[in-house]
Design goal:
Number of strands: 5
Distance between the termini: 47 Å
Helix content: 55-70%
Shape: globular
Strand content: 5-15%
Structural class: mainly alpha
Order of helices and strands: EEEHHHEHEHHHHHH
Largest sheet: 3 strands, antiparallel
């Protein structure tokens, strides 16, 4: 027996105003999230991107081709209902930030980490007001609580839609600092992604590429770029 698949039933997807911002209507019927909540988003730009995704559907609805809709659903159904927990989870990355854990050898890798990662820590100090210090090795060493509190405050100020995108920026890069850098478009998203993969790129240079690892990295790269775009779409 073939699996049932949702079919396209509408002729047009339109952006409509909503008390919470904007929404999308299919032939006048408002789109809802999987949890049956109104799909209301903060900006017209985000609503227009969602409408384009619905308009692009042909005979069958293919959710994997609708990343903006998917992230907006997550913001409403998941992040908004447990916002404090999401804030705490993401802010915790500051105490184990990727950029702070350095190799002790070889010298070339040590130098490359300092050259590429130190400027990002300097940026966080200057722009965010939080100085995180690098450590040698992989054993956890706590950061300055005052710096962590500052980073927590920045994270807590994000709304549910920003947090949904920020979650992927931080978890995919392994760095709260790089998450903020991508969100604030300090550098191109592709460059920030390469910064987060410094160690992997080093290993590839020494030993060659692993096909499975490369394919997985490509998927994560695509997701990182989408999260950067999603954060921008959330800006009022």
């Amino acid at each position: 027996m073939s699996e049932w698949k949702a079919k396209r039933f509408w002729k047009a997807a339109d952006v409509v105003e909503h008390p919470a911002g904007y929404s999308v209507a299919l032939d006048g019927r408002p789109v809802k999230t999987p949890a049956k909540r109104p799909l209301a988003v903060p900006t017209r730009a985000m609503a227009e991107a969602i409408a384009l995704e619905w308009d692009a559907q042909e005979k069958e609805i293919k959710p994997h081709t609708m990343p903006v809709t998917k992230t907006a659903n997550a913001a409403i159904d998941k992040v908004a209902v447990q916002k404090q927990e999401v804030v705490e989870m993401l802010a915790a990355y500051g105490d184990s930030d990727l950029l702070c854990y350095r190799a002790d050898r070889p010298e070339e890798l040590v130098a490359r980490q300092a050259e590429i990662w130190d400027p990002m820590l300097d940026w966080a100090h200057q722009a965010l007001g939080a100085r995180l210090e690098p450590r040698v090795g992989v054993m956890h060493q706590p950061q300055d609580p005052a710096a962590l509190e500052v980073l927590h405050s920045h994270t807590a100020r994000l709304d549910s839609f920003e947090l949904a995108a920020f979650h992927d920026l931080v978890s995919l890069s392994g760095s709260l600092v790089l998450g903020f850098a991508a969100a604030q478009q300090v550098r191109p998203a592709d460059e920030i992604w390469r910064i987060s993969r410094l160690d992997e790129i080093w290993q590839e240079e020494q030993w060659g590429e692993d096909e499975e690892a490369t394919a997985l990295a490509a998927l994560k790269h695509e997701a990182f770029l989408h999260a950067t775009r999603m954060f921008a779409l959330a800006q009022r």
